[in-house]
């Protein structure tokens, strides 16, 4: 069989898609049908910024299985994916519940028992993988990770620069099956605005074969055309758009609300004191035993939510 | 005024940062150290955070939870993508990266990936940008408490290469960044001897003996001919530091 690099396979897939301007606004169940068991799933945002938790919550609830989950830096969702049985492998550079809350002991135990595989890159290493994937080329040469033990278990190659002889590290492209990305605003075609920190979502969207966007607000196509400089993800790479107010809660969505650190702190306490069983009960209470993500959101006190909105207003001026 | 270990580390680090440097920082002690340096009059230096923020202001009491949330975004100059912050490093625009680690050896090689303990391995889930900073910055300063379990003969895992095996070995490996410049601890400050690249005692905190410093290290560092005495934090330094972290999130 002829070998084809991942980027060209992703290109073939893109060429076969319908690129038209058309309505892709769907309910969350339809969007989730784009994700199959055993898929490589990429998550947008990073740590506690724009974690697409509404989509993640529904993936856990739908009991998707054996996903290889890629995120440049994970927050609490890695712990939930591990304990709920969604993930068989993580590809990342970092996993913590949030900075000062530290590393999850339960997740460390699971990883140390090697029940779930961990492929660890440097942050720049994994970002370069998405960049290569987004460009449709097989690898990116970089000077990072050279001389480190990190590369010993990683599928990287060293070459000498064909022009100068410099030593370079080649990191392979990644082209995930599906990317899930939470944005502030999108139209029904999938043109998506990201306010605040862009993280790496432009490249993550472009590297993935299929893209699901969740958005705080669905805006008109005219609204997008009024301020095209704010569009970061174009409609033609997007397969489904889901309207998801508070869709990143309890992580932050810049311009709307900051992270609910109290909620994440409670999770960190359960993690420390009750371990895997406690986390499983947490998943039961907040996901399996609830009918919808919005039943979960309604369980958060409104004063908590108002507090997060007002801190965001104070720190992100002009939005 | 009495002070905590973390306050001491932040103050000593702030003193070592030179005005005008571009400094790649994380949250916690390193952010507080840079912000303290700014407040102490070093107005020309600026910060870069890997989550994607250039020179934000710290707005107490909103201390950040990560390098990418809005709390490191207040009054920033720019929100680059995460990759762009590393491109600034690779491209040569970062003078100093502040780092920490679970283990360090005499050549400044750092481990923030795993610890070998009684025959088993305890993995930390990821080291983030640590390797990239150590590999690509013009120089690095490593900040960590002086403890025997941290200052080891051989690190369990080289997450972030320092001077590798000393001498020219770092350059020979093809690592382009300038390497470790200083190591700041709660008892002493070290630099690296220019030829051998071995860690070298440069100064000790007032009232601290050389014996006490060596007791807390598994390897024996070189010792400079004239060791300087490092004055403890002043009241002014501590007051400013505490005003930056009024709820003592990072300096407890």
Automatic annotation (TrEMBL), chain A:
PANTHER family: ACETATE COA-TRANSFERASE YDIF, CHOLESTEROL RING-CLEAVING HYDROLASE IPDB SUBUNIT. Pfam families: CoA_trans. This is CoA synthetase. SUPFAM superfamilies: NagB/RpiA/CoA transferase-like. It comes from Candidatus Marsarchaeota G1 archaeon BE_D. One of its GO terms (molecular function) is CoA-transferase activity. Transmembrane segments: none annotated.
Automatic annotation (TrEMBL), chain B:
Pfam families: CoA_trans. InterPro entries: CoA_trans_fam_I (IPR004165), NagB/RpiA_transferase-like (IPR037171). GO terms for molecular function: CoA-transferase activity. It comes from the Archaea. This is 3-oxoadipate--succinyl-CoA transferase subunit B. It comes from Candidatus Marsarchaeota G1 archaeon BE_D.
């Amino acid at each position: 069989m002829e070998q084809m690099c991942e980027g060209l396979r992703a290109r073939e897939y893109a060429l076969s898609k319908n690129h038209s301007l058309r309505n892709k606004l769907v309910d969350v169940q339809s969007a989730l049908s784009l994700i199959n068991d055993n898929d490589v799933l990429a998550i947008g945002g990073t740590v506690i910024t724009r974690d697409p938790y509404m989509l993640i919550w529904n993936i856990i609830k739908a009991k998707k299985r054996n996903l290889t989950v890629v995120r440049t830096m994970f927050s609490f969702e890695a712990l939930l994916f591990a304990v709920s049985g969604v993930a068989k492998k993580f590809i990342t550079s970092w996993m913590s519940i949030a900075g000062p809350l530290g590393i999850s002991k339960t997740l460390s135990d699971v990883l140390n028992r090697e029940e779930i595989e961990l492929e660890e890159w440097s942050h720049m290493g994994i970002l370069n993988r998405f960049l290569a994937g987004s460009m449709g080329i097989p690898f990116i040469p970089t000077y990072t990770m050279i001389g480190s033990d990190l590369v010993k278990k990683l599928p990287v190659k060293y070459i000498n620069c064909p022009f100068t002889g410099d030593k370079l590290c080649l990191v392979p492209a990644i082209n995930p099956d599906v990317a899930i990305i939470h944005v502030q605003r999108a139209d029904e075609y999938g043109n998506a605005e990201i306010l605040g920190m862009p993280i790496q979502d432009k490249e993550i969207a472009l590297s993935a074969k299929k893209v699901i966007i969740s958005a705080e607000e669905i805006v008109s196509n005219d609204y997008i055309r009024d301020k095209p400089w704010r569009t970061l993800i174009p409609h033609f790479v997007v397969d489904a758009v889901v309207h998801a107010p508070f869709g990143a809660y309890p992580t932050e969505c810049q311009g709307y609300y900051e992270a609910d650190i109290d909620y994440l702190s409670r999770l960190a306490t359960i993690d420390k004191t009750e371990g895997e069983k406690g986390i499983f009960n947490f998943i039961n209470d907040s996901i399996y035993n609830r009918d919808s993500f919005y039943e979960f959101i309604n369980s958060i006190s409104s004063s908590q939510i108002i507090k997060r909105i007002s801190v965001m207003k104070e720190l992100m001026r002009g939005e | 005024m009495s002070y905590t270990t973390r306050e001491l580390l932040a103050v000593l680090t702030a003193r070592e940062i030179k005005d005008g440097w571009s400094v790649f920082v994380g949250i916690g002690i390193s952010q507080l150290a840079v912000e303290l340096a700014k407040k102490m009059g070093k107005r020309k230096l600026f910060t870069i955070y890997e989550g994607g923020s250039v020179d934000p202001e710290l707005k107490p009491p909103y201390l950040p939870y990560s390098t990418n949330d809005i709390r490191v975004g207040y009054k920033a100059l720019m929100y680059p993508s995460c990759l762009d912050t590393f491109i600034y490093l690779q491209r040569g625009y970062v003078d100093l990266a502040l780092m920490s680690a679970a283990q360090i050896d005499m050549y400044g090689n750092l481990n923030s990936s795993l610890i070998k303990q009684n025959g088993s391995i305890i993995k930390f889930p990821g080291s983030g940008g640590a390797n990239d900073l150590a590999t690509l910055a013009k120089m690095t300063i490593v900040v960590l408490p002086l403890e025997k379990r941290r200052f080891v003969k051989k690190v369990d895992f080289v997450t972030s290469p320092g001077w590798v095996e000393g001498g020219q070995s770092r350059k020979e490996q093809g690592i382009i960044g300038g390497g470790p410049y200083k190591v700041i601890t709660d008892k002493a400050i070290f630099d690296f001897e220019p030829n051998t690249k071995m860690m070298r005692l440069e100064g000790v905190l007032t009232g601290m003996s050389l014996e006490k410093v060596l007791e807390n290290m598994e390897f024996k560092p070189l010792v400079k001919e004239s060791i300087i005495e490092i004055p403890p934090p002043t009241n002014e330094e501590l007051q400013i530091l505490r005003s930056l972290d009024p709820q003592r999130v990072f300096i407890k």
